[in-house]
TrEMBL record:
Residues 83-110 form a coiled coil. It comes from Meloidogyne enterolobii. It comes from the Eukaryota. It is found in: Endoplasmic reticulum membrane. It is a multi-pass membrane protein. This is Uncharacterized protein. GO terms for biological process: vacuolar proton-transporting V-type ATPase complex assembly.
Length: 226
């Protein structure tokens, strides 16, 4: 669809021969519709490509019709206003694209400086800090378990005697009571240690999946941009 203004109409009137009856020349597009005169079509706000072609065929062959066609400009229709949900989705999409581009840029930067930075090129040095933190955490868990188990045994061996001296427990009974308390605390600590290790494994798997998804998404996005 092409836009028609007074400027285009002036150009059209200049190229039309003065003796050509534009108000009487009818343009028919099909047999089912009534025809329209050239003046009626030109006085509209817009004109279609089929109407331009029909007018060209109806005019004399020596008419400089190309001047009129060259002055036509596409008609711009108002864009539909986006809803709040569409605006929010568009904003989130842009933020996600920007985040993926930043991650891709960081990955490319790390690959470029890997030959210079030894901590990045050597996988042992790269994971040294993480491994040290893991060893430190495990040592703390072991020491904590030893302290709690030893304290439980001491409570069963000496604490009961101090709290209830009238029971008159001998060493074997106190030893058995201390072992029972220590065993209960040991299995309780063991349960929490195993649970913590299981949670760490699940978290590592989730991080690996997320990293793999980010890399695949970044690669596909880069291919689309290219």
């Amino acid at each position: 669809m092409w836009r028609l203004t007074e400027e285009e109409r002036k150009i059209f009137r200049k190229i039309i021969p003065t003796d050509f009856p534009t108000d009487q020349t009818q343009i028919y597009f099909d047999e089912t519709t009534n025809g329209s005169s050239i003046d009626e079509i030109i006085n509209r706000d817009g004109i279609s490509s089929s109407e331009v072609e029909a007018i060209y065929k109806a005019l004399p062959s020596d008419t400089e019709f190309y001047k009129f066609v060259g002055s036509l400009k596409p008609q711009q229709f108002p864009q539909p206003e986006l809803t709040e949900e569409q605006k929010e989705a568009k904003r989130e999409y842009k933020e996600r694209i920007e985040r993926l581009r930043n991650q891709q840029a960081n990955m490319e930067y790390n690959n470029m400086i890997r030959s210079i930075d030894q901590t990045r090129s050597n996988s042992l040095l790269q994971n040294f800090g993480q491994e040290m933190r893991e060893v430190s955490r495990q040592m703390v868990a072991i020491i904590n378990t030893l302290i709690t188990v030893g304290g439980s045994f001491a409570f069963g061996f000496w604490g009961v005697q101090f709290a209830y001296p009238h029971l008159g427990l001998d060493i074997a009974e106190r030893m058995l009571l201390g072992l029972v308390c220590a065993t209960i605390v040991f299995f309780a600590d063991l349960y929490f240690i195993v649970k913590s290790m299981s949670n760490d494994e699940i978290e590592e798997k989730n991080k690996a999946k997320k990293k793999k998804w980010v890399e695949s998404t970044s690669i596909s996005l880069q291919k689309k941009c290219q």
